[in-house]
């Protein structure tokens, strides 16, 4: 594996003029700041989200902060497979798509297990299944771009729980924390498994996992309609300043995974100092690198989402 360029400067990205990226959950947090960094580098960004008003606010904020930015918005609720199909059909017809950031996520799961209108557990549906379906449906335009990339948002929390292959939707034993961690283990495992399958099929598309360390709103610049933490929120987040970083900095690893020419399929990226810092190569917990876990999850997702990757 090549050591991706040591001199990578997330504040001075290589030009992305002429390139097109789609970001899920782009109206807030890491999705917003990734969109901002990509458009500042000259890319056209398709900002997607589930709420038209929040998306409009985010697009307006991005245009204020990046004069001349080339952005559009698109409704995409990752917990709803019909919404995923509709957005994928619209994007799939385009000539080019250079990367998809599979970022949207429920980060504070409901106390009680709840299901979507498709009948899937909400956290699994939003964080995992919708992204699996979206990614599989966008391989055509990603391949047309030559070396399109899928970047999946993993998490350090994956080392804090064991994955239960027999119960991906937590029908037997739900807790909010467990739902979150399982969803992130599944996300990472699918990201790695996707790359195995793309390589085996000779596809030019690659799949990469990135995590943002520990990135909090209260240490992030206030932006109307995008990031408006309360004074208490800022106070609490700043108490943990030694361990945390802003969401702006948290976006550095996913953005590098999307655009650094030296990043290889199947690799993982995260902050240099565990929870914060410059974007560097990272190592994933073994469960998420396991071909057995990847293959079983893949089969489960194909059946549950009724989407077969071409
Ligand atoms: N922040 C961290 O330290 C951290 C650490 C590890 C991993 N991550 C991962 O990074 C990703 C982003 O986290 P964040 O900190 O930026 O969270 P965030 O600030 O809460 O933003 C989450 C984004 O996801 C969107 N979203 C939620 N449900 C959705 C749905 N059904 N359809 C479409 N969009 C939906 C939200 O939109 P609404 O505004 O409409 O809710 C919002 O735009 C998540 O996948 C998270 O698991 C974050």
Automatic annotation (TrEMBL):
It is an enzyme of class 1 (oxidoreductase). Pathway: Steroid biosynthesis; zymosterol biosynthesis; zymosterol from lanosterol: step 5/6. It comes from the Bacteria. Its EC number is 1.1.1.270. One of its GO terms (molecular function) is 3-beta-hydroxysteroid 3-dehydrogenase (NADP+) activity. Transmembrane segments: none annotated. This is 3beta-hydroxysteroid 3-dehydrogenase.
